[in-house]
Design a protein that fits this description.
CATH superfamily: Ribosomal protein L4/L1
Shape: globular
Low-confidence stretches: none
Oligomer: single chain
Strand content: 15-25%
CATH topology: Ribosomal Protein L4, Chain: A
CATH class: Alpha Beta
Distance between the termini: 16 Å
Order of helices and strands: HEHEHEHEH
């Protein structure tokens, strides 16, 4: 239901990838401003070191891998970004 709520309220964004060529917090913030996202949760399939390091000093963003996804974090963040490759893994976890 939490995922449905994000979708219905247009707070769910699915991206092909969240690739950053280098670790730069400034560049990461610029990308997030393009989406006009505040208090965002970004869910990836696997470790993305550049994304994780670039976002760690941004207090309104949390990056996690699909294994850690939980209802509290979905509800606690206004925007939810899912990397497309993580979706089958999330579906698999929901079915289990």
């Amino acid at each position: 239901m939490a995922l449905t709520d994000k979708f219905q309220n247009e707070r769910l964004v699915i991206v092909d990838a969240f690739d950053l060529s280098e670790v730069k917090t400034k560049r990461f913030v610029e990308v997030m401003k393009i989406f006009d996202a505040s208090k965002a949760l970004i869910v990836t399939e696997e470790k993305n070191e550049n994304l994780e390091k670039s976002s760690r000093n941004v207090p309104w963003v949390k990056v996690m891998r699909h294994e850690g996804l939980n209802v509290y974090d979905i509800l606690n963040h206004e925007h939810l970004f899912l990397v497309q490759s993580a979706i089958p893994k999330i579906e698999e976890a929901l079915i289990s």
